[in-house]
Design a protein that fits this description.
Shape: flat
CATH superfamily of the largest domain: Transcription factor LuxR-like, autoinducer-binding domain
Order of helices and strands: HHEEEHEHHEEHEEHEEHEEEHHHHH
Radius of gyration: 30 Å
Number of domains: 3
Number of strands: 13
CATH topology of the largest domain: Beta-Lactamase
Distance between the termini: 56 Å
Helix content: 40-55%
Structural class: alpha+beta
Strand content: 15-25%
Number of helices: 13
Length: 381
């Protein structure tokens, strides 16, 4: 089928490679597509080698096996026979066949063949060893049954070329996943601190907002959105915000360093004014498209009290539950006497617990302890 592969079919294959990291069963469409093109009965991608207690990460396309094996010590291949791989540490990026590594006679007498390959009718094999975004080895293997032909030179050349795309796709996929994880952690952290984030485009229109921002806007207490634009009740505040936004966007257009500005927002309810930080984002005009994020607005409520996670506090500083409870009350702004009263303990007991907390956290005074706790744990609320 390789000889009759059309441009459309080749494009489809590349699409499966580059979209592989977002599939429910990663790279399953690519592996299945390769099976169809090369008449395979098995194809796999090992993104993490099974080493020691780590059972590895293996994606499989085979009619009789699971599609994904993660840290699987029940599987004899990953648990016992991976280190006996007959195609271990191939030349980087070059498609190699199994018979170039070992004779078929030796293959058939090996435990790997008897225990892992023969039961699922794997005999002919072609492999690629590639590097991920961290420079670590990952492998791709393509297999046929004993009754089929071995892989020829044109198929090896084809997979060597495809290997460049596989390597790039896996590296890019890893980076995208990592960035997405960091973004989610950042978003969770900021939301935990009750800091709202609103992203604006090149026209000052709202693109997106985090959960904390949605809560601020839902109250409509001096700040909300109308027709994708931020609206402030106070006319003076509204004009000031619009001027700051326009100043950032104009500086970006002129390729000048845009300013960072801060302001407060009056709330009709009489609550403490909200605090806004208007911060520009780096914009590359050579790749910019419509709705590209140009600036972020951070919203905070000075009156907002942080919730402290007792489990995280104990885990981070090895505090006892009693010590963690006292630390939480102190971080909420209570004095030592107030904390002791709230917890129903004697003042001397509270003082002894505070000394222990100081020793474990490295703090030397109560104000330092409170600052340390808020910085360390409000992010996990």
């Amino acid at each position: 089928m390789l000889e009759s592969l059309t441009i459309v079919e080749f494009s489809k294959l590349l699409g499966h490679i580059y979209d592989g990291h977002i599939e429910e069963d990663p790279y399953s469409s690519f592996l299945q597509n390769v099976r169809e093109i090369l008449s395979l009965n098995f194809a796999s991608m090992t993104l993490r080698e099974p080493i020691g207690d780590d059972g590895g990460l293996l994606f499989i396309s085979c009619d009789i096996l699971e599609k994904t094996l993660i840290d699987d010590h029940e599987n004899p291949y990953t648990d016992r026979y991976y280190t006996s791989d007959l195609m271990y540490k191939l030349p980087w990026g070059k498609a190699v066949t199994l018979d170039e590594c070992i004779s078929y006679k030796s293959l058939e007498s090996s435990d790997l063949y008897t225990m892992c390959m023969a039961p699922i009718n794997i005999y002919h094999m072609m492999g690629l060893d590639l590097r991920n975004a961290n420079g670590q080895r990952f492998t791709v293997r393509f297999c046929r049954p004993k009754s089929a032909d071995n892989f020829n030179e044109s198929e090896k050349a084809f997979m060597t070329e495809i290997g460049h795309h596989i390597q790039r796709a896996v590296s890019n996929g890893m980076q995208v996943i990592q960035l997405d994880s960091e973004r989610k952690l950042f978003s969770k952290t900021i939301s935990g601190l009750s800091i709202g984030i609103i992203t604006l485009d090149e026209r000052g229109k709202v693109i997106n907002q985090n959960r904390a921002a949605e809560e601020f806007l839902a109250h409509k207490d001096g700040l909300y959105v109308i027709n994708e634009q931020l609206h402030l009740d106070n006319t003076t505040d509204k004009q000031k915000l619009n001027d700051y936004i326009a100043e950032v966007i104009e500086a970006q257009r002129q390729q000048e360093v845009p300013p960072v500005n801060a302001m407060t927002v009056e709330r009709p309810s009489g609550a403490v004014h909200l605090e806004l930080l208007i911060k520009p984002l780096a914009v590359d005009q050579t790749v910019e498209s419509a709705k590209t994020p140009h600036l972020m607005i951070f919203i905070s409520d000075p009156a907002k009290k942080y919730e402290i996670d007792i489990k995280m506090l104990r885990s981070l500083y090895n505090l006892t539950r009693a010590e963690a409870m006292l630390a939480k009350h102190l971080a909420a702004g209570e004095t030592l006497d107030q904390s002791a009263n709230s917890l129903g303990i004697a003042r001397n007991t509270a003082r002894a617990q505070l000394r222990s907390i100081f020793a474990k956290t490295g703090a030397t005074q109560q104000s330092m302890l409170v600052s340390l706790i808020l910085k360390s744990l409000a992010t996990f609320s």
